[in-house]
Amino acid sequence: MPRLSRLLVATAAVTLVLSGTAHAQDDRRVVIGTPTTGAAAEVGVPVLVTGLSITPTTVAITATELTFDGGATWVTAEVLRDHDPSRVDWRYVYTPEQAGDVVVAGRVVTASGAGPTGVPAVIHVDGAAVAQPVDCATRCELGTYYKEAVDDPDQSPVEVGTRFRVDRPGQLLGASLGRGSYRGPITLRLWSETGVLLAETPWDHPGLMAQIDFPTPVPVEPGHDYVVSYYTPQGGYATSEDFFVGTLVRAPFIVPPGAGVYHYGDGGGFPTETWHDSTYWVLPEFRG
Predict the structure, then answer these.
(1) Which of 129, 154, 176, 262 would be 40's cystine partner, CB 3.0–4.6 Å?
(2) Chain segment 158-186, per-residue pLDDT in tens
(3) Fold of the domain spanning 4-125
């Protein structure tokens, strides 16, 4: 399933080490996972702001607050998961109302009050994205936020996938999957935005997780939509509704609202239908 929480914990750990004694008196932290700073957004189109809040292990988190106006006002993020009282996954759906740069920052709230403001992320509303340095020389998987997955009882033949873009040229290696109850043979596919099949490969392994590469990496370019999907002849896929409710930006990936797509039928096909902003836990893997 998604690796975002593990990545955020690692990032937070580095932050604590680098902070030294300057923050020794208050170790409450908010780490923003998405959007990657420098992301572009459109007026009126929701953006998914997600991340992790942490405190010393003896201090319980009561809320995570975010500001989009330099601290003049604060909003409370939705709690997605309590790892324990001192670590919380959260999200907030932010809809820009006017063009210009928006700086989002967060703070942890505990019984003693609000903690310090964390490292911010900048969103360029109706402006050009600024691609951030990301080491994808080997591979980068789409990092998403945590949400509980459901094993869908559907047993019909279906193709499920994720629509996405990239912010830099490179190669699509394949995808990582979180699977449901069906563990038989599947076929992984990559499609162009118009439904042209760009690559496919069969997979037959009973594991809950799968990392599948195409025989040959596929060149991908910014400015184009792609869909990575897999065909399951007996349904049994993992899904989470109310997931892609806004644009999710985690460099080098840009995932639009309603990105989880499906297509019913024997043999599968180009998936274009959506259901309740679901994800089917098909995570593209990029090199570049």
Answers:
(1) 129
(2) 999 999 999 999 999 999 999 999 999 99
(3) Immunoglobulin-like (2.60.40)
